[in-house]
Amino acid sequence: MTAVPTSPAFKANASAALRDPDLQKALRFVRGNFIGKRASAVARLPEFDALRDSARAIKDHALAHLDLYLAQWEAKVVASGGTVHWARDADEARRAVLDICKAAGAKTVTKGKSMIAEEIGLNDALEAAGMTPVETDLGEYVVQVRGEAPSHIIAPAVHLTKEQVAADFRRVHAGLPADRDLGDAAKILGEARTILRGKFLAADVGITGANFLVAETGTSIIVTNEGNGDLTQTLPDVHVVLASIEKIVPTLEDAAQILRVLARSATGQDMSVYTTLSTGPRRSGDPDGPKAYHVVVLDNGRSAMLGSKFQDMLRCIRCGACMNHCPVYHAVGGHAYGWVYPGPMGAVLTPALIGIDKGGHLPNASTFCGRCQDVCPMRIPLPDMMRHWREREFERRLSPKTVRGGLALWAFFARRPALYARATDLAMRALAFAGRRKGRFSSLPLAGGWTATRDFPAPQGATFQARWRKDHG
Amino acid sequence: MSARDDVFASIRAGLGVRGDEAPRRAAVEARLRDAPRGVVPARGELDLDGRVALFKAEAERVAATVVEIADARDLPAELARYLRDNNLPATVRFGADPFFDGLPFGDTALEVSRGPSEGADAVGLSRAAGAVAETGTLALLSGADNPTTLNFLPETHVVAVARGDVAGDYETLIARVRAQFGRGDMPRTLNFVTGPSRSADIEQTLVQGAHGPKRLHVVIVGASA
Ligand code: SF4
């Protein structure tokens, strides 16, 4: 089993999210902060768009030669003293990690942020095996103590207010003065730093993700701001890297190209604070660093995307820009998407990884405004791919009856334009009449999804087509 | 079939390839050999004085502090001054780098120790292998000379970098590492460090000083031309 999805319940999740005042307050920080910061970082770099083209070309080339680069990368990892474990699916990846941890006699396992770990449901598996996984990224730590999943791929606790986090810290950090001040982000961070410092030093195994795997050198790269990933991978005897097959780039220069668009798109920094290149275990003469270096490489449905309409999605570098700029994400947050990857990238990736039967609702979570594609540093055509999924979903007859009925009705009229014009004209007159007092509808039959959260403007008397004919005829 | 064989078979099936096609192999070999630089931002392409000035501006933008000293022999005094001015303990730990040998730490009141950190050190001192002016970034290599734990465990990290090692861009630095370690080989860890640690995980409010150092002080060593 992978992490258990609630994606089939997207609609219910979304309406609950819209009614959650804490969530709505927290989501304002997404709109308020990410968008402006990215815009100013981009404005400071005239070559930004040229770098996006370069980054896209690098990933396209790497994917087209993925088998060869993976083989080259593996050979370099082995030559530098590391071990590679291949995993077809989540189950195999989990088993590989558990075996490494058991062989190390691990009790405490620290973790840097890894979306793959979320994808394979690693924490539950570690706990079931009697080990204590400790998330060390502040946001991940917060969602772990709450027993939640991250709601954003780079800001896991973005759905929470500082008051909620402070209340959780008071609940779980026993032995600290009850009246201590946790009134601002700095105090909360200070407490997490103190608590986690002990865990870093006690850990037997450290698990990180990987932003890139470099074929040229067998290097894995992580990008963080807090320094938690580095403490996680430097202090314990064993370092396990969790990666997926599409993280490959050919050379260090290629990694540098993509790094230049990653942080700018994600947090609006020119570079994240720590970009760490790791190659194998500690060398002879090294006074620190892990004694063993393992990489678990996961496929889990990705190879099946190669050669399909969704291959471009494998260029994704998990920067989060698409969700930061998505009006649907702004409204409902990440949990509503029901699985590991939210926002536009999640709407495309989730059906590919867990199946259209479970993730097929997500591509509907779009207004097709196109902002995600405009900001995606890897120029992934997200709206097009959501459209492909919608078509497939319809073909597979998985849409609920009303949607299918609605589309069939539209198809009927679409083939009969004259009839359509008359019918809509009638309908518009009726609506205009019914809505003449307020100019808006707060509820409409068949449009509950729209009117639950906003009013439907009453029409002004004529259809678009009729006015077009009048003005341009 | 093993998991590895299955993954490779599935990748090749998706791509519609066998894996032994000569043109594909040649394309991969060429890219690994030539390592094209791609798009390098113009902003770092300056002479040495310009690069040092840009590095300083960019590092300060991300809340590092930067000073320049003409002579490495002034490093202990500068370190002592920095710690005193910031009310920090007069203690420092650094690795076996010969760069530090013979520096007059004895002329200061600093308590000096050498070796990796196990978590109890207030101040770590490292020598960076280089710096990238483009983003105000330091490049630190692991090993006994400059143990990686010193980059992350102490609350205060002081980093010396030779003036001549300040590069304009990442590509220059990568070429230097490749020349030092050989093509295709790397030190165990290469840390690119851009400012002191930080987090914006609570309400997207940026707070300086997360799990890594709370302060980063850079000392550029060498007389300007
Ligand atoms: S789809 Fe594009 S914008 Fe979204 S996370 Fe991936 S790379 Fe970033």
Task: Outline the secondary-structure elements.
The complex is a heterodimer of chains A (473) and B (225).
Chain A: H1 10-18, H2 21-43, H3 48-64, H4 66-79, E1 83-87, H5 90-103, E2 108-111, H6 115-119, H7 122-128, E3 132-135, H8 138-145, H9 162-172, H10 185-202, E4 205-208, E5 212-214, E6 219-224, H11 228-234, E7 238-244, E8 248-249, H12 252-266, E9 274-278, E10 292-298, H13 321-324, H14 327-332, H15 343-354, H16 356-359, H17 371-375, H18 382-395, H19 401-414, H20 417-434, E11 440-441, H21 448-451, E12 456-457, H22 464-472
Parallel strand pairs in A: 1-10, 2-3, 2-4, 4-7, 5-8, 7-10
Antiparallel strand pairs in A: 5-6, 6-9, 11-12
Helix pairs in contact in A: 3-12, 15-18
Chain B: H1 3-15, H2 22-34, H3 48-61, E1 65-69, H4 75-85, E2 91-94, E3 111-114, E4 123-127, E5 130-132, E6 137-141, H5 149-152, E7 156-162, E8 166-167, H6 170-181, E9 189-193, E10 198-199, E11 207-208, E12 215-221
Parallel strand pairs in B: 1-12, 2-3, 2-4, 4-7, 5-8, 7-12
Antiparallel strand pairs in B: 5-6, 6-9, 10-11
The complex binds iron/sulfur cluster.
Q: What does this 3D model show about the protein?
A:
The complex is a heterodimer of chains A (473) and B (225). Chain A has 2 domains: 7-303, NagB/RpiA/CoA transferase-like (Rossmann fold); 401-472, no CATH class. Chain A has 473 residues and is an alpha/beta fold. Chain A is 50% helix and 11% strand. Chain A has 22 helices and 12 strands. Chain A is globular, with a radius of gyration of 25 Å. In chain A, the strands form 3 sheets. Chain A has a 6-stranded parallel sheet with strand order 1-10-7-4-2-3, with helices on both faces. Chain A has a 4-stranded mixed sheet with strand order 8-5-6-9. A two-stranded antiparallel sheet of chain A has the order 11-12. In chain A, helix 3 packs across helix 12. With 225 residues, chain B is an alpha/beta fold. Chain B has 2 domains: 1-34, no CATH class; 46-221, Rossmann fold (3-Layer(aba) Sandwich). Chain B has a 6-stranded parallel sheet with strand order 1-12-7-4-2-3, with helices on both faces. The N and C termini of chain B lie far apart (64 Å). The mean pLDDT of chain B is 97. At the A-B interface, helix 2, helix 3, helix 4, helix 8 and helix 10 of A face helix 1, helix 2, helix 5, helix 6 and strand 9 of B. Iron/sulfur cluster (SF4) binds at residues 265, 316-322, 345, 376-378, 380, 382 of chain A.
